[in-house]
Amino acid sequence: MTGSTGRIRGFALAALVAAVLVSTAEVEAQYRYGGRGYDDDGGQGIFVELEGSLANVRNADNVVATIDSGNVVSSVVPPWDDDVAGRLGGGYRWGGNKLFARVWGFAAEQDAVATGALNFAVGPPVGGDDSGTALQVTTEITMNTIDVGWARTHGLGESFDLEWSAAFRYATFEETQEGLYADGAEVFRVAKSNEGEMIGPHVGVRGTYGLERLFFSGGLGFSFLDGELTASSGLTQIAGGTGASFSGFLDDGRSGSIRELDVTGGWRNPGNSLQVYVGWEQAEWMDIAADMVRNFSTTTSPLRDRDSVTVSGFKIGFRYRR
User: Is pLDDT at 70 greater than 80 in this prediction?
Assistant: First the structure.
């Protein structure tokens, strides 16, 4: 029931935005104020855009163990380094309209090594005991989106443009943890996975202010998604005895969302066929990035819930059109 409600809500909003975009085309002249906008030259042709960024995972809260020191419980959460993300897009434009397709991808990896009096956080405890003395775990996060949609640009005076867009989005999130736990002579292989796969409408708005050769731009985007979450977590003893544990989760009636913000500034050539820019962006993935196998009934130190992951960073890009 929840998935159906989310799907109806999302597509209704997309339909409303599309209706607004179409209706504004009929009264476009009143926004011109005597001229075209900064980026609207009335031309037509193909366009290509490419972006690369150094992005960082935030709020992943990928705890691999806890340390219980009397009344104080601390989490072992290794930091994430910056990793490369990229976006490739293109399409066709005419008279202030655009048909476009965009692909975005990001992957990050980090290692955790710890020793001491540990309470393991991955997998149901084997034999009801989740304590140990050492660990080595690698965590990987991969995020991807594919958008196909339409955009409409309105010139609000000679120096400012406002662009509305509506698209169909496919999004995937995958998080894996693999490695080893040890408790003296006992060694366990660790395996954990959270996967989200969802589709739904994406709507966005972008404003651009231009000078002679420079421009400044900012955009907001929202995705309303439905799909499924799959998760698993377990331990397999490989030394010092035999034993195994496993927990699985599957639900194909889930909803999620993605909220995006970016700001850029750059340079364009005299004919505006080439733009080069730098900027910053942030995207918050809600529910599609939820950790569904985080705590178990016999876990010594339960972890706080995690229902979202954010990725943000600085980027550089260019656009070419003809």
Answer: no
How much is the pLDDT for 39? Answer: 64
pLDDT tens track for 294-314 = 988 878 888 889 999 999 999
Which DSSP string corresponds to 211-275? -SSEEEEEEEEEEEEEEEEEEEEEEEEEESS--EEEEEEEEEEEEEEEEEEEEEEEEE-TTSSEE
> What is the number of alpha carbons within 13 Å of residue 39 lying toward its C-beta?
29
Q: What's the token pair of residue 261?
A: 């913000």
Rounded to an integer, what distance in angstroms lies between the CA atom of residue 249 and that of residue 49? 39
Band of residue 7 on the pLDDT scale cut at 50, 70, 90: very low
Local confidence band at 278 (pLDDT 50, 70, 90 cut-offs): very high
Token reading at 48: 């290509």
Distance CA 10, CA 14 (A): 6
Q: Whole-angstrom Cα distance, residue 293 to residue 175? A: 12
What 8-state DSSP symbol labels residue 299?
A: -
Which CATH number does the domain 2-321 belong to among 2.60.120.600, 2.60.120.20, 2.40.128.100, 2.40.30.20? 2.40.128.100
pTM of the model: 0.85
Residues 6+ apart with CB under 8 A from 50: 86, 87, 88, 89, 317, 318
Name the burial class of residue 242, with classes exposed (0-12), middle (13-18) and buried (19+) by CB atoms within 10 angstroms of its CB: exposed
CA distance 167 to 102: 10
Beta strand 44-58 with 308-321 is antiparallel
Give the model confidence (pLDDT) of 95-113 as tens digits. Answer: 899 999 999 999 999 999 9
